[in-house]
Amino acid sequence: MTGLAAAPGAAGTTQTPEGPPTEKKGGAPPRDSASQWRLVWRRFRRHRLAMLGLAVTAALYLVAIFADFLAPFGTEHFDEDYPYAPPQTIQFDGGLHVDGYTTAVDNETYEQTFTTDPSQRIPVGFFVRGEEYRLLGLIPWDRHLFGPTEPGAPMYLLGADRTGHDLLSQLIHGTRVSMTIGLIGVVVAFVLGVVLGGLSGYLAGRADTVIQRVVEFFMSLPSLPLWLGLAAALPPEWGPLQRYFAISVVLALIGWTHLAREVRGRFLALREEQFVTAARLDGCGRRRVILGHMLPSVSSHLIAQLSLSVPAMILAETALSFLGLGLQAPVVSWGVLLQDAQNVRVLETAPWLMIPGLAVVVAVLALNFAGDGLRDAADPYRR
Amino acid sequence: MNDTPAAPLLDVRGLKVHFPVRRGPFGRVTGHVRAVDGVSLALRPGETLGLVGESGCGKTTLGRALARAVEPSAGRVLYDPGDGGDPWDVGALSRRGLRAYQRQVRVVFQDPFSSLNPRMTLLRIVGDPLKAHGLASGSELEDRVADMLTRVGLSSRYMRRYPHAFSGGERQRISIARALILGPRLVIADEPVSALDVSVRAQILNLLLELREQLNLTYLFISHDLSVVESVCDRVAVMYLGKVVETGPTSPLYAQPRHPYTEALLSAVPRPDPRLRGAGRRIRLADDLPDPARPPAGCSFHTRCQAAVDGVCDVPGRPPELAPAGEGRLTACHRATDLTLTGVPALGPAVEGA
Ligand SMILES: Nc1ncnc2c1ncn2[C@@H]1O[C@H](COP(=O)(O)OP(=O)(O)OP(=O)(O)O)[C@@H](O)[C@H]1O
Ligand code: SF4
Ligand SMILES: [Mg+2]
């Protein structure tokens, strides 16, 4: 643990230019006492795309948290009189309203088609009374941000699915599941990755070799078949909640390897850093060296890495659910919603059923932008 | 305290540090880098011993092994705690004993940039050793840190700043404060000025010398800059490929080296005085340092030594041992007695007032 660190140009030592011979301050005054997170934030803010990504991500999580209030209807609400009803537009003439529907039945196929009918007015409003729910899972309430003022009247701003569910409400509820399943998967992956990667990097030698071979084994498995296999192996009698957790663990089983690599690399480099040796010689025990000196040095980087693995998990969940192996109705996620969009004929009559795919794209892009920006901002002292 | 005046503070006997070289997917050990390969040295209380040698010869590793930052592979280090008791066998210390030892033997690192944790304030950097050893906390800790910072020439107002706000020289002062706050007796300074701008080197060297007087310190001063070593060290040990090849008091050793490697090192020192330039022939050392994983047989210097004699110097299993060579000097060369080597006259102080 010696020579390498002493070697010129070793592991990212920045040779900031020497101050003037009189040994006056090197840095600009405001840098003097900025803590690391302030510096990270300052750099992050300069990153336009990342800020946009962060804003969208934050908005999506707000939607996830307040889904019950934001969605006009609950997940169970449907009206079988309106299968594949097309989207309505909100109109204003003194008060807000949407148009009602007229039905036409095809004489040959007996297929029902709906068209919006301007002669019917369904008044809508804000903070309308609707189904009861518990806000944040605690406070019972029955107000919704907006909806038809007359409960039960048809309002399908993004159209309806085969059984007359309101797609907008479903999409809002799906945000909750889709955006959080990645988080839980990431937490599991994080624990696995940091513990195993950290051990690997700190202990080095044989332990490192063994752990690295395990990581490579997991990395060499083709992820889609593995997910499929694991997901298919879940007992079918499991309830939605059990499935939800099981799926997130399945996702994490793949996700942790990259993180473990990352942490290991960082720890290996850090071990050679003189300040880590210095901390040991200062009398700090192993725990204190790892938790107090090494982990803080990689924390910002880890968080950036984490935010980059959330979108991968979201995509994976979507893919699994789309294929019918992930979550299943009555749980609503974007992937589950996309199951309805598998049929080309259905898409012809109800193209709006692809909108959940758009939500996935937006979420993944936003998280990626934010994660990239964070990663770039994470290392304010080095490089 | 001790009635044998020459009792060494640190007595190093046959110390070895070998690093395993791992290859292949399963990390098989295919060899060892013999970074330190049988070093014997004695550090006397109050002296400054210079440790010189080319890059890669194992100076840093030796320093770290003495501080027990790396585990020695073989050999013994005896430390005289100065309380009249028996010397401590540093390799066999208990955990508590090791902590006590590491309080008395401290390290100043070479790189003032990577040796300070960029995410900690000076207060934490300098105060952490006190806290980790349970010596002070709270306002007492702050007072002691402030005191130490003043001692090394920094204002205690900087206590809550992060290291990146400081220049290299100031950072090295912080490093010194961290080393000294535990009240050590021996300081291992690993190239403390070589990463610094020439203009601040003298200031840091002077600071080290002042502190040595004030605090009764003993230094192991690692450096590859022979003129710096001349100006601050009482004695010098020359290292080559993991071994000490010559030791002795600074001026006689510089004036008349007894080992061809020392001669070669000295001949490469730039002369500040133009009249002396070109006075001695410059001995070019062939190639690079041999691979420390496979040191040459016999005298490990024979591959580059101008005075090497076949059949004497390269006989496997017959390396030259350190032997007395007059004036309190030791040298490890088969031909020590029949060679006349040229040194350098006094190089002139690199540090004013030193
Ligand atoms: N942790 C380690 N693992 C493997 N080899 C090492 C390790 N530390 C040092 N070495 C090797 O040991 C040898 C001696 O290195 P060391 O850093 O002690 O030399 P040095 O004299 O301090 O050199 P420099 O003047 O460049 O600082 C080198 O060959 C180096 O590559
Ligand atoms: S023993 Fe031989 S090779 Fe080694 S230093 Fe002496 S003369 Fe040179
Ligand atoms: Mg070194």
Automatic annotation (TrEMBL), chain A:
It is a multi-pass membrane protein. GO terms for cellular component: plasma membrane. GO terms for biological process: transmembrane transport. It is found in: Cell membrane. It comes from the Bacteria. SUPFAM superfamilies: MetI-like. Residues 1-17 have a biased composition (Low complexity). The chain crosses the membrane at residues 49-71, 181-205, 217-235, 241-259, 314-338, 350-370. Residues 1-33 are annotated as: Disordered. Keywords: Cell membrane, Membrane, Transmembrane, Transmembrane helix, Transport. InterPro entries: BP-dependent_transpt_permease, MetI-like, MetI-like_sf, OppC_N. It holds the Pfam family OppC_N. CDD domains: TM_PBP2. The keyword Secreted does not apply. Residues 175-371 form the ABC transmembrane type-1 domain. Belongs to the binding-protein-dependent transport system permease family. This is ABC transporter permease. It comes from Streptomyces radicis. The lineage of its organism: Bacteria, Bacillati, Actinomycetota, Actinomycetes, Kitasatosporales.
